[in-house]
Amino acid sequence: MKIRFGILPALLLAGATFGAVAQQAEAPQPQLWSPVTHEVVQGDIPEIRGIAADHVLPASSWTVNQAELTGLDTLGNAQFNADLLLFGVFGVAVLFALFVMINGKAKLTHGFSGKLVPRWSKTDVAVHWIGAIACMGLILTGLVMAAGRFYLDPLMMEARWQGLVNAMVAWHNFLAFPFIVGALVMMVKWAPKQMPEACDLAWFKSCGGYLNFGSFKGKHPDAGFANAGEKLWFWCFTLFGLILIGTGLVMMFPSLVSTKDAANLALVLHLVGALIVGAFSVVHIFMATIMSEGGMECMVSGQCDENWAKQHHNLWYDKLSRS
Ligand code: HEM
């Protein structure tokens, strides 16, 4: 029987690299990057790879609940998953670039004052970049693992593709650890700064003052240390980042769960987390580098221009200048 290949085996191999080491001696290895047939090993997650339900699974301690396979099966179209993840990064980047071209940047109304205000500590900046660089690496390696089979494999020799994808898997596994450290510290350390405030709803209603047309133009809605958009990113990142970490660990160490259904679920949730964090990261990067004049300085020196603070975080600036 032919097994279809794509994102799922790619992600699987990422998880299996660590988890399968212990099983190498006794179990046949899945040759995920070449068109092999019918080898399915313990720690592998065949159901959402489109393998027919009547496929005989190898003897293992994993229990398969056939009745529940159909739901997960529908999520198993590898090409669809790959395209969705690609759109989440490149599609969103193109859409956002078009938006910036049409709307223009959010300029500082009174320009730069030259006076700097402390905003993030050196530890905050370091932790942000540890998490951010690892996250960007995970997104890129994950995309090659997910979509490379469809878009890169046909362009290169099989051996070269296998070398590339194996390198991506190794990097994906390696980068997971700095990401976990950076993300967890950001989540715990920054949560108190990201709590909801009364002004958040009004911030959303005026789209943060970032739209340069109609009645939105020239608005500077109130915001504390973090504005409502940053809070949305922070809490999305916290929720889906934790899901990515938890499910990623399950795929690295499959013995953490006791049923194949649980492993399947981990994989599906990993894809959902990757899609949302990937797409939101693109928006976050655009906001920091292109959209918000003076915003990038915050995560380079930890300081921001006084006029940037007044325009984008007036309530925080007022509090700071009173203290
Ligand atoms: C893709 C991985 C990244 C993650 C997970 C991440 C995460 C975060 C989080 C949670 C915050 C705090 C909430 C906020 O202020 O928005 C933040 C702030 C910030 N990030 Fe990132 N970030 C990433 C990449 C980047 C990149 C690539 C840049 C710039 C090139 C960047 C620039 C900034 C800046 C300038 C701030 C501070 C904004 C402010 O002071 O209000 N981030 N990041």
UniProtKB/TrEMBL annotation:
Q: Name one GO cellular component term.
A: plasma membrane
Domain Cytochrome b561 bacterial/Ni-hydrogenase positions: 119-294
What range does the record give for the signal peptide?
1-22
Q: Which organism is it from?
A: Ferrimonas balearica (strain DSM 9799 / CCM 4581 / KCTC 23876 / PAT)
Provide the alphabetized UniProt keywords: Cell membrane, Electron transport, Heme, Iron, Membrane, Metal-binding, Oxidoreductase, Signal, Transmembrane, Transmembrane helix, Transport
Cofactor(s) required for function per UniProt: heme
UniProt lists the family membership as follows: Belongs to the formate dehydrogenase gamma subunit family.
Lineage, highest ranks first: Bacteria, Pseudomonadati, Pseudomonadota, Gammaproteobacteria, Alteromonadales
Q: Does the keyword Disulfide bond apply?
A: no
GO biological process annotation, one example: formate oxidation
Name this protein carries in UniProt: Formate dehydrogenase gamma subunit
EC number, as in UniProt: 1.2.1.2
Q: Mind listing the GO molecular function terms for this protein? A: electron transfer activity; formate dehydrogenase (NAD+) activity; formate dehydrogenase (quinone) activity; metal ion binding
Q: Where are the transmembrane segments?
A: 84-104, 125-148, 168-188, 232-253, 265-287
This protein's record includes keyword Transcription regulation: no
Tell me how this protein sits in the membrane.
Answer: Multi-pass membrane protein
The protein's location, in the record's own words, is: Cell membrane
Task: Assign the protein's first listed, main location to one coarse class.
Answer: membrane
